[in-house]
Specification:
The chain is an alpha/beta fold. It is built from 7 helices and 15 strands.
């Protein structure tokens, strides 16, 4: 699945609650995309000072269409780049690279799969659900958000899943609380075989912990900032435990974004754990000095 860079064309831009969904004609990207992968988009136009691309999880793909293969992704307006995207018009050109990253691994046999999404992090779970259903798997959805407006895909999830649990932080719809709150009961009731999740890091941490305590494998798609998308800039590194038990700083964009939840060291994100492979040696402890040497050092520092 070698990624390609294409000059695509905006086919449509629509509002879904608090979010924007953009469909782009992107031949070569759509045909090889797998659930859990992402694309990066150049923003700002040819004369922009915004040099870094913006990463977006793939929501839907159509391998064939009137204009060619299409890719749809969902985004929230958070800064200059996404604000520029939100003002694009149909038929405008757009520079897109994809598909990028490692996709979700699918069960070889029919299984009961619980899909957990937070906010528009639910978007990549829908192509995953389609792929799982093709393999005869049962799908149960748990989705949540801060408010009803920020939920994504509740109606589609209800249509394609055996059960749907909805939570909102403010209680505006569904259960009041976090998306992880009903998860233990859902796992027990459905006798789940595997959990898939995508959303904010605190949510992924909670879901991974609950799945691990239940003894159920869990795959998560992380939402780290992936400035380049191809493993060069090193802005998206995470401490992850490998098959050999060693912790390594891995790149979310090429080694992920899908990881086994129990392997991610959530408590150490943003740091380089001392036991990680290649971690810098701690500075040596200062050697004790005698009173005369200490006095000479103070005098030397005073006259510098």
């Amino acid at each position: 699945m070698t990624p390609v860079q294409v000059t695509g064309e905006v086919l449509s831009l629509r509002r879904i609650g608090a979010y924007n969904a953009m469909t782009v004609v992107a031949p070569g990207v759509a045909e090889s995309a797998k659930p859990g992968q992402f694309v990066t988009v150049a923003v700002g136009g040819p004369d922009t000072s915004m040099l870094m691309r913006r990463p977006f999880s793939i929501y839907q793909v159509r391998e064939r269409g009137v204009y060619g293969g299409t890719v749809e992704f969902v985004f929230s307006v958070e800064g200059r780049g996404t604000r520029w995207l939100a003002h694009m018009q149909p038929h405008e050109p757009i520079d897109i690279v994809g598909p990028l990253g490692k996709p979700f691994a699918l069960p070889r046999e029919p299984a009961t799969c619980v899909l957990v999404g937070g906010g528009y992090g639910s978007a990549p779970l829908f192509p995953l659900a389609d792929a799982l259903r093709e393999r005869g798997c049962r799908i149960d959805f748990v989705i949540g958000a801060a408010t009803e407006e920020r939920l994504f895909g509740a109606l589609d999830a209800k249509r394609i899943s055996a059960t749907l649990s909805v939570t909102t932080d403010d209680g505006s719809v569904g259960l009041r609380g976090r998306v992880s709150d009903p998860l233990p009961e859902v796992l027990a009731t459905t006798k789940a075989d595997v959990v898939y999740a995508c959303g904010p890091m605190p949510m992924l941490r909670a879901v991974s912990r609950i799945a691990e305590e239940a003894g159920i494998p869990c795959q998560i798609a992380v939402e780290e900032m992936m400035a380049c998308g191809v493993g060069v800039c090193m802005t998206c590194v995470l401490p992850v435990v490998g098959d050999d038990g060693e912790t390594r700083m891995v790149r979310s964009c090429v080694d992920g974004p899908v990881f086994h939840g129990e392997r991610v060291r959530f408590d150490d994100i943003g740091t380089i754990p001392a036991d990680a492979v290649g971690a810098p040696e701690p500075p040596p402890e200062p050697k004790p000095v005698g009173k005369r040497a200490a006095k000479a050092q103070q005098v030397a520092e005073a006259v510098r």
